[in-house]
Amino acid sequence: MHRLILVLTLCLAGTAAAQNYPAKPVRVVVPGAPGSTPDLLARLFTQRLGEVMNASFIIDNKPGAGGTIGTNLAMKSPADGYTLLFGYQAAVTVTPSLYPDLPYKPETDMAPISLLARICYALVTQPDNPVATLQQFIELLKREPGKVPVASSGNGSGGHLFMEMLTGETGTSFTHVPYKSSPINDVLGGQIPFAMESMGVAVPMIKSGRIKALAVSAPKRLPVLANVPAAAEVAPAAVNCGWNAMWAPAGTPPEIIARVHAGLMQTAATPAVRQRVEDLSMDMIAGTPAELAATVKHEIEIYSKVIRSRNIKLQ
Predict the structure, then answer these.
(1) DSSP strand E in the chain: where?
(2) Is residue 299 part of a domain?
(3) pLDDT digits (tens, 9 = 90+) for 205-257
(4) Quick one: 274 and 304 in the same domain?
(5) Residue 7 pLDDT more than 50?
(6) Residue 19: what pLDDT?
(7) Which of 117, 204, 225, 300 sits at a 20 to 30 Å CA gap from 282?
(8) H or E stretch covering 205
């Protein structure tokens, strides 16, 4: 009887805490540097989320090691709702296959709250490059197997993985040129003929005519570049886009997860937030915790196969 009373008391206390949540500032860990895309998005969403929930959300930037430092810090924090993670795809679904000693398990250590925004990549080149279409690019890869250089922002980056997917499905090969950051300046200068670049960087330059796009990595054409084909039109499995989402540490009370999720849905529906996401050449993909969990599980399986079959290493 005493045990039952104790259990009921703890349950009631937990419910009361969730109803009063948040009663103090909430730390939101961002595994990216100030000014990075994850940081910009985190500040956009948390500012509006704070207004919706009448609360204070404090950004804590923890970049490094492909996002694993910040992700691990957030997921090892107390599961009380006062530390959340505004994370991104690579640190959650790609790193399990690239880091043999990853200190967290995305499917068990992370309580999903919601997907938020998606950003895809563009295959770009100089305007005067005689290769003007995706089909011509694939034909070039076939004529010169393993010799065509394509740059990305690093080994295991979204652009790199997309190229491995594209060449894997088309039976071609290329020379990957990994940069430590965006390769766009070398594309502009003609030092590298092809590169995978994020839409946020590529779109303004494409629209101004400084570079041209041969394809996008989305499942279908994107409204912002309606005349540029999706690579999936030629190679259906060549789809790879980055995304951002919010998690809490595993074990966080479901009532708190539900409150944060409800606040995020209101935030995502705010016209000014949606417009800013669009201005960054991103798509709003806010959804349920179950959808985020399913996305993580599915992508871990996909990237594991790609990374293993193509023998991709960090170095």
Answers:
(1) 26-30, 57-61, 83-88, 110-119, 121-125, 149-152, 175-178, 194-198, 212-216, 242-249, 283-284
(2) yes
(3) 999 999 999 999 999 999 999 999 999 999 999 999 999 999 999 999 999 99
(4) yes
(5) no
(6) 79
(7) 300
(8) helix 199-208
DSSP category for residue 66: G
Tokens of 64: 């490094």
CA distance 117 to 286: 7
- Do 37 and 103 fall within a single domain? yes
CATH number at residue 93: 3.40.190.150
- Each residue's pLDDT tens digit, 79-122: 999 999 999 999 999 999 999 899 999 999 999 999 999 999 99
If one counts the domains in the chain, the total is: 2
Query: What is the distance between the terminal CA atoms of the chain, rounded to a whole angstrom?
Result: 60
Burial of 284 (0-12, 13-18, 19+ CB in 10 A): middle
CA distance linking residue 162 with residue 166, whole number of Å: 6
Nearest to 153 by CA among 278, 309, 303, 37: 37
Residue 149 lies in a domain: yes
Q: Is 282 helix (H, G, I), strand (E, B) or coil?
A: coil
**62 and 108 belong to one structural domain:** yes
Closest CA to 88 of 63, 105, 108: 63
Could you list the beta-strand ranges (E) of 136-289. Answer: 149-152, 175-178, 194-198, 212-216, 242-249, 283-284
Token pair in block for residue 286: 């806010």
Structure token digits, residue 235: 């190679």
Give the CA angle between residues 51, 52, 58 to the nearest 5°.
Answer: 55
Q: Are 302 and 296 in contact (CB under 8 A)?
A: no
By the 8 A CB rule, do 307 and 136 touch?
no
CATH no. for residue 150? 3.40.190.10
At which residue do the structure tokens 């330059």 appear? 205
Distance CA 233, CA 225 (A): 15
